[in-house]
Amino acid sequence: MIPRYSRPEMAAIWAPENKFRIWFLIEAHACDAQAKLGVIPADAAKAVWERGDKPYTAERIARIDDIEAVTKHDVIAFTTELAEHVGAEARFVHQGMTSSDVLDTCLAVQMTQAADLLLKDMDALLAALKTRALEHKYTVCMGRSHGIHAEPVTMGLKFAGFHAEMQRNRERLLRARESIATCAISGAVGTFANIDPFVEEYVAEQLGLQPEPLSTQVIPRDRHAEYFATLGVIASSVERAATEIRHLQRTEVREAEEFFSKGQKGSSAMPHKRNPVLTENLTGLARLVRMAVIPAMENVALWHERDISHSSVERMIGPDATVTLDFALARLTNVIANLVLYPEAIERNLNQMGGLVFSQRVLLALTQAGVSREDSYRLVQRNAMKVWGGEGDLLSMLTGDEEVTARIPLDTLKELFDLGYHTKNVDAIFKRVFGADHAA
Amino acid sequence: MIPRYSRPEMAAIWAPENKFRIWFLIEAHACDAQAKLGVIPADAAKAVWERGDKPYTAERIARIDDIEAVTKHDVIAFTTELAEHVGAEARFVHQGMTSSDVLDTCLAVQMTQAADLLLKDMDALLAALKTRALEHKYTVCMGRSHGIHAEPVTMGLKFAGFHAEMQRNRERLLRARESIATCAISGAVGTFANIDPFVEEYVAEQLGLQPEPLSTQVIPRDRHAEYFATLGVIASSVERAATEIRHLQRTEVREAEEFFSKGQKGSSAMPHKRNPVLTENLTGLARLVRMAVIPAMENVALWHERDISHSSVERMIGPDATVTLDFALARLTNVIANLVLYPEAIERNLNQMGGLVFSQRVLLALTQAGVSREDSYRLVQRNAMKVWGGEGDLLSMLTGDEEVTARIPLDTLKELFDLGYHTKNVDAIFKRVFGADHAA
Amino acid sequence: MIPRYSRPEMAAIWAPENKFRIWFLIEAHACDAQAKLGVIPADAAKAVWERGDKPYTAERIARIDDIEAVTKHDVIAFTTELAEHVGAEARFVHQGMTSSDVLDTCLAVQMTQAADLLLKDMDALLAALKTRALEHKYTVCMGRSHGIHAEPVTMGLKFAGFHAEMQRNRERLLRARESIATCAISGAVGTFANIDPFVEEYVAEQLGLQPEPLSTQVIPRDRHAEYFATLGVIASSVERAATEIRHLQRTEVREAEEFFSKGQKGSSAMPHKRNPVLTENLTGLARLVRMAVIPAMENVALWHERDISHSSVERMIGPDATVTLDFALARLTNVIANLVLYPEAIERNLNQMGGLVFSQRVLLALTQAGVSREDSYRLVQRNAMKVWGGEGDLLSMLTGDEEVTARIPLDTLKELFDLGYHTKNVDAIFKRVFGADHAA
Amino acid sequence: MIPRYSRPEMAAIWAPENKFRIWFLIEAHACDAQAKLGVIPADAAKAVWERGDKPYTAERIARIDDIEAVTKHDVIAFTTELAEHVGAEARFVHQGMTSSDVLDTCLAVQMTQAADLLLKDMDALLAALKTRALEHKYTVCMGRSHGIHAEPVTMGLKFAGFHAEMQRNRERLLRARESIATCAISGAVGTFANIDPFVEEYVAEQLGLQPEPLSTQVIPRDRHAEYFATLGVIASSVERAATEIRHLQRTEVREAEEFFSKGQKGSSAMPHKRNPVLTENLTGLARLVRMAVIPAMENVALWHERDISHSSVERMIGPDATVTLDFALARLTNVIANLVLYPEAIERNLNQMGGLVFSQRVLLALTQAGVSREDSYRLVQRNAMKVWGGEGDLLSMLTGDEEVTARIPLDTLKELFDLGYHTKNVDAIFKRVFGADHAA
């Protein structure tokens, strides 16, 4: 998590202020539950809220840090500092609980908050993608497989494809959020020996979580692994969109360009350059988000009821992966929303191959005219190779090939070279992606 | 995919016989759809089924390979061989389609089949885990955090925990299966320029798939990435259970042992050794399944409408990850079902620490008796340290500590050292995991 | 390791024939050493060689497999089968040794053999790269950063860069080979309790290995981790070269093309297409080689003196990573050696940007003429933006900018637009990469 | 890079102060070289040193940040700020150079500095390991394979093994340091079009680097990949040592314990617990260091002469991986140096298996007494199984087995149960690891 690739709202989720605030809420709600059970006095719970419910300022955080420096135990440091505010009743705080009850539930809350923010990011991205998709629904451009011109598509289809993919990612993240949103207050080995399961249920409900069905001091790490794996998939989709834009912006293609702000200098050496640095950066950020996946999976196999090897990993990847992905989604949204398209270049590229992109259609027409698939292929290929060699465009070549014109009348042949043929189902695809009323 | 770690049913999914069979089904159903649309003669579609619907024998596969050796194109080799059986009508096969329509839809079918088999594996594992969980619901054993004795749990809770985790994995895999089960027959760049979307819808329905909303010659690879990431999470859960058993079997613990068959020799050098080789092996297999995750994510960012860099990756990880996980799940099921538990060792370990494991309860009792948390901690700690130093068991030490007995009467003190205290909520946890009627 | 991406020589290293052959050599040499020490009769060692030194045929391998199916122990199966040939003296075989002595030393031999083959592959690749580098030393082409035209380079420099990188990789692999080439015959926990260190030293020398200074039943896995990490770096370099070619071949660039064999069909749908499928494939293969790295590192932390979790991992990644990289290096060599370059396209692209690529030089000239860096930048940028906008080429624009011509005389300005300026140090760079006499 | 796992010296390498200081040195040395070449006035170079050679204070850094916020270009921001100190002569700074010349060379310097610090860390760790190895050279303890008691080893051998491994890692890091220590000042595409190669050579020499033979605006990323892969191997070795200690500390084994400071509280719930939290933490830190490896390899395949996707990755993993490993090495050194060993527990465990660990030796003695390997195995196994079943120790069982005593006289049998037998080659192994004079 480095400032350059952080946004304040996500960074705040991982700040000590928020962490201690969540710890406080867990402890205070647990006191309420214990009071309801009669385990601790109702006045004690009340005192915790009345005297403890205040922001974690820099001073308070420093005080907690000082105590931890001595005790080397973070939760004891926290409750000790809390006791300095709450007073004698503080001895009822944390009763029957173990540190992990607080730490793990807090992490679940933070990861849920982070997921909510990422979902918001994705909504913004989806909106931008939809806008650009509708705007360029029929902006016909060259489709490419293997980097080689294939058949026409539309710019709108590209945006719509990213939209469909990000929509799937949104559902994945929703499920990962649901999976991580559990609360464990089950004691030192998860048996509720010293605490009634009601406390867990109560705190869970207050915090919008589900009780963890079976915890073992810790919430099982398969949940976290799913979460980070989902971030990895989302990041890979970000990389896909970024890669597309990088390709479209390269000098020889130049169908699109990242927005270039006034004051910005592209290169100290080559002032004319407008580099797709934002999408290149997104490519790198995707690698960074993905690198959390394997450690998160290695974290699953803790020893017996728990070991703490996962903790340092999560301290790092928790903030890093969510902050980086938040930044990446916002940056991609900005790039998409402001992407400059160059219609002339799009059209120039479309025509570059002399109509070779229509060869598949000619092939089909020949087959339908009764020519065997192999012969059709041969006929198209020999003309295509001439076009490839620079002898002219495909329509001219075919017109001059008697074996072709013997099967397909000239008029029919010309009709095959029609862009509308390639866009006739775009609306059907858009309906699949955006629903029937998307254009309304 | 090496024979040692393969099971025939999963290996068969990835064998050429099955692959070509699926290709045939895609092409033949597509012919039916094209016939319904009037694009090709109904007789042609009929001929494909009548003369082409037969098993892919070793001979046929060899023939396809021979053709591919010349054409260097697998689908053309396939359709050419098919034409040798179907005859002239074969020219209507594959009409308007592109190779990826066949390849990608086939891969989706194979991954769906593999998921179904893995789900079956997981059901068997879940059943074994439930059986052992119920059997040992109240087999009290030592719970450990950090590898250090903590408080009592039960062996049943361990199995139940793995069950709950594997149940979550089952849901993840169901969703990944749903996500991968799509059909793309949309042509060279996904625009349906040369083929009606009806064909895709028809074939999808026949094969139990959903039409891919927007394909770009290929099915988007975020779906595959989710799938392999899910396998990685499942494998990590396998590793967790395996690690637990490896720990329980180590000489000093020896609470459990993998089943040791009669003829088996543990070691050429040390005939007494019974090594947890199956679970050690599972630890390694987990690494192998996980290693597919990052390449699958790297596959997402294909260039433009597609490049073929993903293909070699999927040829390897498709079979490898599913075959390995299938083997691992079956092996783990076998290990769980036949795991030998040693009640005497379990009890011996339980008592090893002289009752230190009850210290948390004593701590709580002191707090509830009005001692401050810090003082309670100090009181328990000073007695615990004596036990740790070998001076006797905790109950004796506490009994001899007047500062303690001043707060807790002797009778109450003794009652704190009761295993039933630790198991009182086991049933509640089992209800969460297995439902209310699990013991019925 | 799938046939499609395997070459026979590398596959043979991992075949049972070779494995059992190495096992035999280890055992037989160990017998010699034991005989020299007087631990076993000299006749016994002689008998092992005389009656046991024969190829491992399919029949022998099947026999070993049958025995292993019963004993579930591979080395016992091996020695049992060997005894069937050697007779009574076979009881002296494997004396004082443990299975890992054989298995780990064998793996070291196989990994050394694989490294030797990969080094040979790299030599072939280096030769091809050097040939193409010298051939195109002065084929000036556009250099690109961020995919955007920058300043001229030469095609030879591209090849030379890959050469320099692969040369470094060669050195890395040599070191990894040296690191893995150790022999462990130290008994069950590495103490030489039952065997004299002389045996290890003797066998090591016979097999061209170093004795492992300290083994713990197994050779420490940091050696293997280094090896697979090195393969991962090499694969990444393969991907870099492949990515360059994919870019050069894309339709809009088309400066280079993979060799296209006569019978080959590029696409069933678009017969004109010549896709860079070999280099796309190499991109995927790089991912496959890299995926071995993390599991190999996870293998390092074995429990105590050893656990067997590494074994399944190595059974898979040992063959897979080396076979795949062998195939990839050979494929890349073939692609490089036969790469078709298109001089006209190279020149067309070079001139595409209207001379903007000379802007850096103009910038420098202005600075040297006493203009401040910021003003120089501004002057060049305003003209560059006009060129970018399509108003003409840079030289014309500058010529028409009086603020520029006031500082740089027209003649000097023209001289700045000279390709020779960019190639003047190519020879110096070639000398660094290929040595002073490379052109001789 | 989070404070909890950072040490100041390594963190300082990655701080802006150090980065800008290195940038300054590169630019200033380059000015000297350009002055020597006559490209810029000697006075200009002198002015840069005289007026620019001062620390980068917080104020200066803030100023640079402010400028970058406008220009969105870090190196321009840097040179602009520098010009505010140097004055008019600043226009000669950065002449003929491109940003990457500064950035990449700076990164090389930082990675070299980081390597030097890590080498120092490793030296401290090696010293601690050697001390403990010599101290416990003959502290006989149980050796374990598969977590199961095997044959005796010594604690010293464990430390010596980690020493040998870390020594290999030291050599790997030395080579990685050498590999990364290159300087590139070659201009926008690496052709030295605008700058004489002498500048690169001169600056390289001043900074203790080698000139990069062939750069393409950037230093090739295979160097960085090797570097991070090496860190990954080292981290894995750290994990291995940490895992050993975690095992030795678990309650049932308890042969060793991390040092437990006075004020430290092990657990809020179980005051008796002394958890191996430092080594558990090291296990997690190893995962964090390893996660840099794959992104570093993905960084290799930059597009054409460079793209900037690697940059964000390196901004993160550069500091993170080195800071984390520095912290981990120091923590491991501390753990090793202060590790508490418990001789009584070591001995108790040694005897736990009733002498079964001597079975291999008995097996050998039987073979040498003329019994076939299979019969010997059977004889030992049947007695071993009785011991395993709790009927007594192995020596008693064998003494009572007439088939055994018929072959081995009682006296000889007893002599087989001698620990000295297992330690007789420890000195030879120590000589291999520490050299002949290690004990002097």
TrEMBL record, chains A, B, C, D:
Residues 354-434 form the Adenylosuccinate lyase C-terminal domain. It catalyses: (2S)-2-[5-amino-1-(5-phospho-beta-D-ribosyl)imidazole-4-carboxamido]succinate = 5-amino-1-(5-phospho-beta-D-ribosyl)imidazole-4-carboxamide + fumarate; N(6)-(1,2-dicarboxyethyl)-AMP = fumarate + AMP. CDD domains: Adenylsuccinate_lyase_1. Pathway: Purine metabolism; AMP biosynthesis via de novo pathway; AMP from IMP: step 2/2; Purine metabolism; IMP biosynthesis via de novo pathway; 5-amino-1-(5-phospho-D-ribosyl)imidazole-4-carboxamide from 5-amino-1-(5-phospho-D-ribosyl)imidazole-4-carboxylate: step 2/2. Keywords: Lyase, Purine biosynthesis. Its EC number is 4.3.2.2. NCBIfam families: purB. Transmembrane segments: none annotated. GO terms for molecular function: (S)-2-(5-amino-1-(5-phospho-D-ribosyl)imidazole-4-carboxamido) succinate lyase (fumarate-forming) activity; N6-(1,2-dicarboxyethyl)AMP AMP-lyase (fumarate-forming) activity. Belongs to the lyase 1 family. Adenylosuccinate lyase subfamily. It is an enzyme of class 4 (lyase). One of its GO terms (biological process) is 'de novo' IMP biosynthetic process. It holds the Pfam family Lyase_1. The keyword Zinc-finger does not apply. One of its GO terms (cellular component) is cytosol. This is Adenylosuccinate lyase. SMART domains: ADSL_C. It comes from the Bacteria.
